[in-house]
Design brief:
The chain is an alpha+beta fold. Helix content is about 20%, strand content about 35%. The strands form seven sheets. Strands 11, 12, 13, 14 and 15 form a five-stranded antiparallel sheet that branches. It has a five-stranded mixed sheet with strand order 25-24-26-27-28, with no helix packed on it. Strands 6-5-4-29 form a four-stranded antiparallel sheet, with no helix packed on it.
């Protein structure tokens, strides 16, 4: 029988040629190649002929065909991610693993490639449990994290999370900093929303007939707040369409006294999520409303997808936050377990929501010097893992063109030791997303995206027109850039919004 090392040159050249085509298609068209693809077979032939020779492994009598079939039958999965630099082989034959691993380590680890061969023994006795970890679990956590960070697609990340407990833990951390999608304005009577992916700059369609004719506010939790012309509000989970009704807006409507149209009744909804246990989620919903930017809150919970009020004793109404100083609330954020509010032109306050029927406000710090911040058009309060940021947005209206134009941002972080605001000119490896829903900050070391930038949408709802002031502000160059999401037609109740789609761990 002919051994691998005696493989004819013309056949070896043919293998290399087909593999070159395979890699070119993967790099240019970014395909996910299935295990049934002929090119998978050809790639395996390359691996065998290049450095997995049975002769080198001690199997002198094994033919090329026999060795090829041996490895192919050992494959339980083969994945080439849509990020084409990642190749994952999942093997189940211990003898094949023992042949492959030393050579993979010698070739790939020396050159620090992102390719990886993963060995999983399918013959492990069930009584061994976690005492027999996969080869991935034996890798240092830093290496596993580096591999996971190279995976830009959520479906690939979810597959990777299934390899071992350490992979799941790392993927959970990454998923907590999920890159938002830009949900574009409603296309009437279609039940379809177009969403823009910041990773690949492509548009996709999302079935959302339940929010037709309604206004939405996004969040980093996979849920949106929905308000209809009948003043009914609910939370909706975008992945499944499950909804949780919110209390009626009667309390807020009495405060406003009919001075606002339905889609402008609430300026901003901010959603905070708590995981109570494996089966139950609890939400705190904050609403900024009315001409004085008043603040109200409600609590709801979800049990296996079924909505239920949280049992505060008064679960059928919104609670108005006491505000004896008549502060105008602009945004709310949760930082290190405490709720903070941004008021007026940058005053920082803290909320006490322990009482079932009322909530107090505590003054923390004055705004930054007026000569520095002037008169911002919009303010946002954004938390990161380490800092609490105040983001000031500046721009102007162009009535003749029926649009608003943002020209720059200022960013301050709060120094809790000195109780003062300090200007920040560099967000380093972070990106900030602001709008009329939650504002949040993402470490760009976990995603492929532009760092030191502020992504913004048009939240100027006080004007009849709007929805086109969307872009990204580069903090280093102090310039505004547009986002290439294509055609969009904002209407009176529907404009682009930041959303997240189905975090891997909810």
């Amino acid at each position: 029988m002919r051994s691998v090392t005696a493989l004819p040159d013309f056949l070896r050249a043919g293998v290399f040629f087909q593999v070159a085509i395979f890699m070119a298609i993967s790099l240019t068209r970014r395909y996910v190649i299935s295990s049934s693809s002929i090119r998978v077979t050809l790639l395996m032939m390359l691996l065998i002929s290049a450095f997995l020779s049975p002769v080198q492994a001690g199997d002198q009598d094994m033919s090329f065909i026999e060795s090829t079939l041996r490895i192919l039958t050992s494959l339980s999965a083969f994945l080439i991610s849509e990020s084409p630099s990642i190749v994952i082989l999942i093997l189940t034959d211990k003898s094949v693993i023992s042949i492959i691993q030393p050579r993979i380590e010698r070739v790939f680890l020396v050159h620090r490639s992102s390719s990886l061969v993963i060995g999983l023994d399918s013959n492990v006795n069930e009584t061994q449990g976690t005492d027999h970890p996969s080869s991935l679990q034996l890798l240092p956590r830093q290496i596993i994290r580096e591999i996971a960070q190279r995976i830009t697609k959520s479906k690939d990340l979810k597959a990777f999370a299934g390899f071992c407990q350490e992979c799941r833990s790392v993927c959970k951390e990454i998923a907590s900093f999920q890159l938002p999608w830009l949900m574009l304005s409603e296309t009437p009577d279609t039940g379809i929303r177009h969403i823009f992916d910041l990773c690949d700059s492509n548009r996709y369609q999302l079935e959302l007939s339940t929010v037709d004719g309604k206004r939405c506010w996004g969040s980093p939790h996979g849920w949106v707040v929905v308000l209809g012309p009948d003043y009914e509000t609910h939370l909706e989970y975008l992945k499944t369409g499950n909804s949780i009704p919110l209390p009626p807006l009667d309390t807020i409507r009495r405060e406003v006294a009919g001075r606002e149209e339905w889609f402008r009744l609430v300026h901003k909804f901010i959603l905070f999520k708590n995981v109570l246990d494996h089966d139950q989620l609890s939400f705190l919903v904050m609403a900024i409303f009315g001409p004085m930017n008043s603040l109200a809150f409600a609590r709801v919970a979800s049990d296996r997808g079924e909505a239920a009020l949280n049992g505060r004793g008064q679960g059928d109404e919104w609670i108005i936050v006491d505000n004896p100083n008549n502060w105008k609330f602009k945004d709310v954020a949760r930082f290190r377990g405490q709720l903070y509010g941004f008021c007026d032109n940058g005053t920082l306050v803290r909320f006490e929501l322990d009482s079932h029927l009322s909530a107090g406000v505590e003054f923390i710090a004055s705004q930054p010097p007026e000569k520095d911040v002037g008169e911002p058009q919009k303010l946002y309060l954004v938390e990161s893992l380490e800092n609490l940021y105040g983001v000031f947005r500046y721009g102007f209206h162009v009535p003749s063109e029926k649009r608003h134009e943002t020209i720059y941002f200022l960013v301050y972080k709060f120094n809790f030791n000195a109780s003062t605001w300090e200007e920040v000119t560099d967000l380093e490896d972070h990106a900030v997303f602001v709008g009329d829903g939650n504002s949040w900050c993402i470490p760009t070391s976990t995603i492929n995206n532009k760092s030191n930038s502020i992504y913004f949408i048009d939240d100027n709802w006080e004007w009849q027109y709007g929805g086109r002031d969307v872009g990204v502000f580069d903090m280093a160059r102090r310039v505004i850039q547009s986002l290439p999401f294509g055609e969009d037609n904002p209407c009176f109740h529907s404009r682009p919004n930041w959303i997240t789609l189905s975090p891997i761990y909810t």
